[in-house]
Amino acid sequence: MAAENDREPRAEDHGQETISAHNAHGPSRFSPEAVAELNEIVSHYPEPRAAMLPALWIAQREYGGEITPEAIAEVAWRLGRPTVEVEGVATFYTMYNLGKRGRRHLEVCSCLTCAVLGAADTIRALEDRLGIKVGQTTPDGEFSLAEVECLNWCEAGTVVQVGGRYYGNVTPDKVDALLEAVRAADDATGEAQADGIVKVCLGSASGSDSTGSSGTGSSGARSSGTMPLPGTAAESSRG
Ligand code: FES
Fold first, then answer.
1. Per-residue model confidence (pLDDT) at position 220
2. What structural domains and CATH numbers belong to the chain?
3. Which of 35, 110, 191, 217 has a CA that sits 20 to 30 A from residue 54's CA?
4. Given the CA of residue 151, which atom of ligand 1 is nearest to it?
5. pTM higher than 0.85, yes or no?
6. Ligand 1 within 6 A of 157 CB?
7. Is the CB of 190 under 6 A from ligand 1?
8. Across-strand partners of 137?
9. Separation between Cα atoms, residue 203 and residue 41, nearest integer Å
């Protein structure tokens, strides 16, 4: 990134005097550390816009696990890009948390293999236990529930993703254990997931693995590893 760490970005840093003019007074919730992280990542790309995905992960962490319109505006401002461009990227990838979700967002795979293995029953059990339907958030804001496509762990269906954690072999009778495990996991939140991915991006940028974890894919989505539920043997294939 052309901007130095000790000052806010300017449009002319990116040679785009007019593009970011409408973002010049945008909100700023990035901490100094977050700005430094963004600058570090951007410095490894030929142009700032190429760092938009990690910038959005930083924004998701800095904005409490959610990509708000203000977060989009700040990313646009910092990268010197039009807000609509950042919005287009953020809405294209379903992995970003757009709109209000529970602190712990449960994504249940209902794709073919998981469906055959009883995903619908697991979803119904979760709805009953949480008192909400798919697409809703509990009144205390702790949990939200979503149905998603294949999470790429088909042999452990039904699979549930919560932040950066994956839980396999989830059946209706394991729903209580699942919720207990999710509550106990400090990193099963949108913020923690975003932070893990940012660290992966920083590690990739510097040519090393800064997370010290294993099993990180290109998206970094599995940076927190997995946690088997009691009575399952799901973990062995996910290290
Ligand atoms: S079908 Fe559920 S993880 Fe692939």
1. 35
2. 11-92 (1.10.10), 104-188+224-237 (3.40.30.10)
3. 110
4. 3
5. no
6. yes
7. no
8. 144
9. 9
Ligand 1 centroid distance, CA of 152 (Å): 5
User: How far is the centre of ligand 1, averaged over its atoms, from the C-alpha of 14 (Å)?
Assistant: 42
Rounded distance, CA 192 to CA 220, Å? 12
18 Cα–ligand 1 center, Å: 46
Tokens at 20, concatenated: 């970011």
Instruction: Give 105-131 pLDDT, tens digit per residue.
Output: 999 999 999 999 999 999 999 999 999
The total number of residues written for the chain in this structure: 239
Ligand 1 neighbour 153 (Cβ under 6 A): yes
Measured in Å, residue 113 CA sits from the centre of ligand 1 at 5
